[in-house]
Amino acid sequence: MAAxxxxxxxxxxxxxxxxxxxxxxxxxxxxxxxxxxxxxxSTSAPTTTTTTATQGPTTRGQxxxxxxxxxxxxxxxxxxxxxxxxxxxxxxHSPWDGVTLADFVFPFFLFIVGVSLxxxxxxxxxxxxxxxxxxxxxxxxxxxxxxLQGGYFHTIHDLSYGVDLHKIRLxxxxxxxxxxxxxxxxxxxxxxxxxxDNGAGGYVLIxxxxxxxFVGLVLTVTYTVLLYGxxxxxxxxxxxxxxxxxxxxxxxCGVRGDTGPGCNxxxxxxxxxxxIQHLYAHPVYLKTAQCSINSPRNGPLPSDAPTWCEAPFDxxxxxxxxxxIVTCLIGLQIGHVIVHFKQHSKRIVRWSIPSLILLILGVSxxxxxxxxxxxxxxxxxxxxxxxxxxxxxxxxxxLVDVYFYKKPFFPMEWVGKHALMFFVLVxxxxxxxxxxxxxxxxxxxxxxxxIGIGG
Length: 455
Prior knowledge:
InterPro entries: HGSNAT_cat
Keywords: Membrane, Transmembrane, Transmembrane helix
Largest sheet: 2 strands, antiparallel
Region (Disordered): 1-59
Mean pLDDT: 83
Radius of gyration: 23 Å
Number of helices: 14
Strand order of the largest sheet: 1-4
Protein name: Heparan-alpha-glucosaminide N-acetyltransferase catalytic domain-containing protein
Distance between the termini: 27 Å
Helix content: 40-55%
Low-confidence stretches: 1-38, 42-54, 56-61
Transmembrane segments: 69-92, 104-122, 134-153, 173-191, 212-231, 318-339, 351-372, 378-400, 420-440
Strand content: under 5%
């Protein structure tokens, strides 16, 4: 399950202004992007050798260090909020509306996948072959996510393993990344203009990739119409209590456009298409004041808790994945700027302006009632997180690839080159689980307990 860094190769014309070196046998891809053992769309990209922010890169075939640093910081942030979030609720995932530090992690991953794809499919002589390879890579990532987050591996305090296929969770973080990756890869392979216009103005770039932008607009409109226009009827579910008795709950809805935890269209579509038994059984809204007497931490249910509190809900569901694809598409356009513009100053300006516009738009939508919500992946949440990702990436690029402050970021760069490995071993608790499997005579006498982690 360990991840390996993507191979560094020569880049096509337009990245550094040099000649193209592509391999038709590989579908014309300039480098490897996502594999089951790859680094979450890790790419090889040019590293600059100039010392001013106005000059462009002069070398070819080196990694763009800021991509790996961005990815590495995101991985470390993910581990931090997972491990510390229980102690500091302010940085843990928001129970419902609103955003916290943890809520920026996943969109940042999707954003950098999109940036990487601009390099992965810079030259595509054989579109059919490239599509096939993208499908295979996405399938590997989806299946890995199904294995890791479907419930097969035991928990820290349970040495049993295996999963009932009738109840396996079908969606998850890696599954959503796989879906977004494949959808955006298709856009980059099939929906773009003619020959490269290196250094062309912004309007030329928009015209070249107008079909991709149109796809993003269609996805956004579709999501918004379904979220606010679909009728959500009453529904019921069954929960098995610790004493194996069955409890039936009826959730009263009969509304349109509701964005609360119990009666939103996102959950309804997942229940109808995936089946409620295949959704995430411990949704974040269990930490709301309505569902926990210890809110914003998990706790016992209040006596007057709503009937939807114990219902499964998947934060990586089907309808909300449309906006995840939009996040990845925006990252792709940021990657196009790197491909088509040589000068650092032009790149930073063309990243910063649209990112700032997205950030302002997202905050404005939230103020006017379209609240930021990670579980629903709302439009305002998409704008704020993607705009923040663009500005953050521009800042890292300025420090690492323009002014060469690389040494302080070397650990983050290394983590970014092995992002999938860290996600599998740490974020999915595989490393603690493996350690927990070795004990002395009794399961509770394990190494984790010895070092103060296990209970």
